[in-house]
Write a structure and sequence with these properties.
With 177 residues, this protein is an all-alpha fold. The chain contains six helices and no strands. It has a domain of 52 residues. It is globular and about 40 Å long.
């Protein structure tokens, strides 16, 4: 029985420090997301298979073509689909990031937002931008609200992992319009 005591003590510690475990998981997800965003930023990822203009217009584009992830082309349609109507017309959370680029740059105003929405984490005194917070909320499964998006597999209506990676790459690129 004495051989089990160290394991029981360790288990008690883990149960009591669930936030430490959650923080470790968030860190691991963040590290993976940053790695993916870095790979996309370095041009290691394949070009998107579809063109928004619907055609195969040639013209060998350099670095400024349609490959760059932007709010208008890539993120706004995603936010319109996944964040409506709360953040497209209703202004919940004091923003409409699904329709207004200026709101992406606003500082987070709600202290009930996830710790990832703040530069100082759980202290919640130094807010990030709404665009950065959108990524943290998606990664935590906090948004869309009440969809239980932290489950695996994610329910219909939640941001997919591919869409999450797209938002992460956009945030890593500085959230271009």
């Amino acid at each position: 029985m004495t051989e089990l005591e160290p394991c029981q003590q360790r288990l008690r510690f883990i149960v009591r420090s669930g936030s430490d475990v959650a923080m470790t998981s968030r860190f691991a997800l963040s590290a993976i997301t940053v790695a993916i965003a870095a790979a996309l930023g370095l041009g290691c990822a394949p070009e998107p298979m579809t063109n928004s203009d619907g055609g195969g217009s040639g013209g060998g584009g350099g670095s400024g073509g349609s490959g760059a992830i932007t709010y208008t082309k890539d993120i706004k349609p995603l936010f319109m689909a996944k964040c409506a109507p709360c953040h497209t017309t209703d202004g919940l959370g004091a923003h409409n990031i699904g329709t207004t680029y200026a709101d992406v740059l606003k500082p987070v105003q709600s202290v009930d937002a996830p710790a990832g929405c703040f530069k100082d984490g759980f202290d919640k005194m130094m807010p990030k931008t709404m665009g950065e917070c959108a990524l943290a909320a998606i990664m935590d499964g906090w948004m869309p609200m009440a969809m239980f998006c932290f489950n695996t597999p994610r329910p219909t209506g939640c941001v997919t992992l591919a869409e999450q990676d797209l938002v992460a790459a956009w945030v890593a690129a500085g959230m271009p319009e």
